Design the sequence.
């Protein structure tokens, strides 16, 4: 018997823009392209949270998915779903809402509650559109 | 040989909210739920435009998909992609940005250019999230 | 402005078998193949419920999707999800659990509550596997 | 009880080009674009065949899907899968391999065998890429 | 030239429940939730088997996918497809049918036959629903 | 803050066959099966290119996706899309067009331009059909 990786999918819909106040409109447009639109745009984000561990011999579970889902929903989905990332979300204040920065902030929030639930956070994957997504392993470089 | 229906898929990402200025916050919340969030939210919209007709004997085409794609991109995708539906889109001014209203406005815009390109607009389908979409047949009721 | 068709997706996971008590094992195997396995098998079913109507001028909605989702969840998903169709589901008692029969029974259950919510049930689609699904229009034959 | 529509999905991978011998290279390029490449290109085609009818009271089936699948595989998939549509497929000889023409030829081939198996062919849908597909109802115009 | 990872997808539909005979109904319900339903429920499982190795210079293949598919179908799909995991499957006797335990048992079965076919089993991924899946690397912890 | 992995999806449609001139027809059929069809077949290929790195503090980006997309389109998609891999593609000359060999050749082409754009190529994944795909990490063996 050995370490398994179990993944839970959750979704949220949010508005954001990529924009730096300390840059000109031109600079913002040049770097962020259409994502810099002043009045925001939005996405259906798809989030995958992966937890690793040995299956519990009594339950066959690395972690109870119902509990994992509750942690993700309370700490990530509720603050983000049907919100504006740049204006409404406390844990994203003063953070450029790139997909890379999002997964890093999510890791900081999820790591300890998942540990307290008996699991080890191993990976966060966030799909922004069908054409791009980001994966984060807590800074580890598995490949 | 008979009538075929050909469909082109295009995508856009946009912010919107469902909100009536003439209603209280409470009324907006009650009717529109999370979609009424004041600072907007957003989606990856997926649009399917269906054109019907007899295949041209010379080309085997009901309509040239390259031409159909150009019409959709110019008239629908460019005004909407990476935009705020409530603030940035001329053809949605003063229109509640429900999915139903979106497809009706898109029909008005696409019907004639597709006709001039030799086709007949038959259906518009707009997917807002993986859990809901709207179809419109120009007011016809096929079922 | 004209009639729109709005669709809500819901999912459930259930066990079933295709089996007639009044047939021999051989006859059951011959007609139902692997689906006749005595100890059941199961599927992740995906259900699409389509409601037609004119968008309400005040809300832009054919029907409020939150309300539609509640109707489907209460009347269809809760009785079926994580259940055995042949043993646990009152509205399927004495009914062969083919996908065709499922959508017909669902129609009978959903038609009136959706009408009372201000909509008109137009179509039920039930996906059993990635390779087969059934559509039902209340007996209408749109094509 | 009423008419149901049951659909079977099958897949095939094939090469083709859109090209007319009686046109110049320039004319072919202008009309067919990249699809006119002299040495062919190819697709993973996804085929959906829909059969309508009343469920048989003994089986709950409009048509036995195993039988439907065998008909499609024998008559459509085997001649097309891992083949060149322009060179290898008898039923496409001298036919421009547009998606429209493909579904019309498939209808001619499938209609009678499905009728003999007790069903009525109602619709063929052929997905060529994630961005385009064709639907055919035997020449009927349901919308 | 270097090590490649090739993956084959196979599917099966099965019934199961999560249930311990040595626990009370209450304890089973508390831990396993809806998955403890006495009469079983079921899923469309999607299995991905990944084999690593250097491509053979003569064939360009890490492993012949036809051979890999045959191994998976004979040893995993046939015993599981349209079966009840708790009652019908010899290699799952006395094993709690959690997704974690399933991939561990599949690894034990597939490792040697794949080795004898010239490949090295590198990963098994099993999707139970669109919202959860498990990955297993033979006990290795790549991240 | 730590290393993130960002992935861009691109697609292309191409014809190919698996065939060795120095083998008999029988040997080609035996090893390559239907893929050896003399007149080619084809696929809708889906390509995922993953780049790793620390997010730039000014932009939040590991790499600008617009720039990454341009690199992939210019060097991989344009030479391959709507082409015959065996006849039309300079970087595949004299190379057996197995999926394994394709990703290895793509790596050689993409590694340096991505490095010059400030990123580090970490993984290439190429989906040939819904049932098989290959992953390549530049020869590394992460698992």
Sequence:
């Amino acid at each position: 018997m050995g370490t398994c990786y179990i993944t839970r999918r959750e979704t949220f819909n949010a508005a954001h823009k990529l924009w730096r106040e300390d840059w000109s409109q031109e600079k913002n447009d040049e770097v962020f392209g259409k994502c810099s639109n002043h009045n925001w745009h939005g996405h259906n984000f798809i989030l995958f949270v992966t937890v690793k561990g040995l299956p519990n011999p009594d339950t066959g579970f690395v972690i109870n998915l119902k509990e994992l889902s509750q942690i993700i929903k309370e700490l990530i989905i509720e603050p983000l779903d049907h919100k504006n990332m740049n204006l409404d979300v406390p844990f994203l204040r003063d953070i450029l809402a790139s997909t890379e920065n999002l997964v890093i902030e999510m890791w900081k929030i999820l790591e300890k509650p998942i540990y307290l639930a008996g699991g080890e956070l191993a990976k966060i994957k966030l799909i922004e559109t069908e054409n791009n997504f980001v994966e984060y392993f807590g800074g580890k470089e598995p490949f």
Notes: The mean pLDDT of chain A is 97. Chains A and D do not touch (no CB pair under 8 Å). Residues 4-136 of chain A form a domain with the Tetrahydropterin Synthase; Chain A fold (CATH 3.30.479.10). The longest strand of chain A covers residues 4-16.
